[in-house]
Amino acid sequence: PLGAVPLQKEHQQQFQLMEAAYYHMPHPSDTERIRTYLPRNPCNTPSYYIQAPLFNSDTPEFYQRLGTETLFFVFYYMEGTKAQYLAAKALKKQSWRFHTKYMMWFQRHEEPKIINEEYEQGTYIYFDYEKWGQRKKEGFTFEYKYLE
Amino acid sequence: YEDPPGLVEKTDFLLREWINIYNSQHQGRDSTKAFSIFVHQMNVHGILKTDDLITRFFRLSTQLCVETVYRALLDKSNANMTLIRPKCYHTLDAFVRLVSLLVKHSGDANNTTTKIHLLNKVLGIVAGCLLQDHDTRTVDFQQMPYQRIFTMLFLELNAPEPILEAINLHVLTAYCHTFHILRPSKAAGFCYAWLELISHRVFIGRMLATTPQQKCWSLYAQLLVDLFRYLAPFLRNAELAKPVTMLYKGTLRVLLVLLHDFPEFLCDYYYGFCDVIPPNCIQMRNLILSAFPRTMRLPDPFIPNLKVDMLPEISYAPRINTNISLTISPAQFKKDLDSYLKARAPVTFLSELRSNLQISNEPGVRYNISLMNALVLYVGTQAIAYIRNKGLTPSMSTIAHSAHMDIFQNLTVDLDTEGRYLFFNAMANQLRYPNSHTHYFSCTFLYLFAEANTEVIQEQITRNPTYKFWQHQFVHCAPEIEKLFESVARSCF
Amino acid sequence: LGQDLTALGLNLNSPENLYPSFGGPWADHPCRPQDVDFHVPPEYLIN
């Protein structure tokens, strides 16, 4: 019953400006901190690809089911984000420990020979993020105070 | 502006210095170390000597950064936007970092006044530059640089640090004032960035969730009112052009997040929102009206013999954060209204009611909708108090034969279809989750239907079968109308 | 008239709040964990 109301001059001008802005819509990365590797850059993929985030994909349970290699990828390539935090939690669940000085993840390869209050000495697997692979380290001393 | 000679060059030089420092690799993430050295440089160049020079420095810096972005965005040789944008971010983020460090370190550690003063100054300067740019470039205006500055500065100032926590409420207030100044009706070319700024997840989180005692709710509500006011003339006419559809969809998304996460917020401020949303904008209004407190368990409206009167909630009045009586004007009208409600005098009140509400003869804009809304809610709340004072509760019998019902019946009969539509909408805006207003107005609606002397009034109120709707002539006035009513009725029942 | 509210990319049945991962008014999907800032220990910031 109200019928249409013609736009006033002021509104027509506003519409013109809005329309111009419509062709410069904000980009998703505009409102995010700079991401060194994976910025928020949605790109169009074929419609039969998965389009929406997987169900529960932002939960610890989901991350605990990811492979170790994937967790390392997330940890090193998505720093400062919730994904990195969830990956770290999942790695710890798999008995990996982050060494704050070497900034690498270590896991016991076998029962350490020496264990005391400050350190344990033995053979470890560590993840070398520069050479991007797991390595074994004999006789390595794992100092607790560097334990994250 | 008459900047002192050499200031532009000096600012340009210093800004470049800082951007290089900020983006140099060996600085890594913590540029605080370089900051103190840089401040010394600013001092050496006399930038910090007077308040005026500081103001000029920020204005020139803002303009220099924005110009850099315009050049990059308009650089036709490199059309790859995903490469251009990060470059712009490096410039803008560096400037923001400088501002945030200056804010954090201005004055001594626990003196919040100087920090807030500086923040307000910078926000004001950036807003001023935006508005000037918007008015100068008009259809060539770019939102991105300003959106980026506001967003990154907000993220910087909301980092979990004790100094920042101490000034957070001031930061939020300053931002809300700035966003109000930059509201879409003032800067239509910035409307998409503006909506994204006020609905950024960190901004919503701070405004509506983490700040205690809902201190920012009214500020946030004001921003939403700014948005609805801007949209109103475009939504008023049902054909939506693409730019309006985009903004409308974005607004619905924000409202859905608010409905899901902060229904109490929508409950508290529904009146102000519905007051500025066009009455024919049913979907958006329903989103707001459908909010109910999370502590409430809603009854299933389809239970056949639902006894509304038995619900305990219908005796509680909803919280309304608008002072309705203030919005009823002019004062003489308010005075007459109160005296009529008290003693049903002056007798001329009813006959003059329509002329008080009518503001023009132009179809579609004949009535003062805000006044209509306020009148309906004010009379309704007075009626509920009046019935309670007599130790009764609202029902079909207790709401009748009172000055309040006189007014509603007069409006029903005396207004034309447009006016009646607005009047019924004002009442429909009160039909929400179980509360005393919902109860009173639903009774009033049904009473008006039963008392209606013409079918056109009944048709505008309800189509519920218990009122023998299908026997009315207007249902059968044309085969396609009959078909339409049947399909709608089937979908409802 | 109006929009299909179930097709705006918001999980309205979510028991969790939506705003922490709200992707913004123009996004068809919520933010992914790698989009959302998180206050991780500084040692984690290796780049």
TrEMBL record, chain C:
It comes from the Eukaryota. Signal peptide: none annotated. Belongs to the CNOT2/3/5 family. This is NOT2/NOT3/NOT5 C-terminal domain-containing protein. It comes from Rhynchophorus ferrugineus. The chain holds residues 236 to 282 of 434 of the full protein.
